Amino acid sequence: MSSNPSPFTSESAQKLKQMLNQRLKIIADHELRQRAPDEQLRQLQSISEQLQSFHIEQRAVLPQRLNHFLTQASYQKALEWLDEGTE
Fold first, then answer.
1. What is the pTM of this model?
2. Does residue 4 lie in a domain region?
3. Which domain holds residue 28?
4. In angstroms, rounded to a whole number, what is the distance separating the alpha carbons of residues 74 and 71?
5. Closest CA to 12 of 24, 22, 20
6. Nearest alpha-carbon partner for 56 in 11, 10, 16
7. pLDDT tens-place string over residues 44-75
8. Tens-digit pLDDT profile for residues 15-43
């Protein structure tokens, strides 16, 4: 028996914003890049996989524009869209 997907909630938006901000933090960590570039790549791969999983799980309920940004891996635009709170 299938059920309708849950709507895209403010909690889901907050979770997505946290992941997007974490991705930016990892990219901006120049010390980690110098000290342990393999670790930085591992962290970046991990957060990227989390973002992809979130997108797959939420795709049916995401606002159209946000879904487009996530499909295109336009993560900065997705974060800006969430910060603006627009549809």
1. 0.87
2. no
3. 11-84
4. 8
5. 20
6. 16
7. 999 999 999 999 999 999 999 999 999 999 99
8. 999 999 999 999 999 999 999 999 999 99
| Number of residues written out for the chain | 87
- In a domain, residue 5? The reply is no
For residue 37, is it within any domain? Answer: yes
- Report helix, strand or coil for 39: helix
Separation CA 42–CA 39 (nearest Å): 5
Is 40 among the domain residues?
yes
Q: Which residue, chain included where needed, has tokens 């989390």? A: 50
Domains contained in the chain, number: 1
Rounded Cα gap, residues 72 and 62, in angstroms = 14
Tokens standing for 76?
């900065």
Cβ atoms of residues 75 and 69 within 8 Å: yes
If you search the block for the tokens 């990892």, which residue do you land on?
26
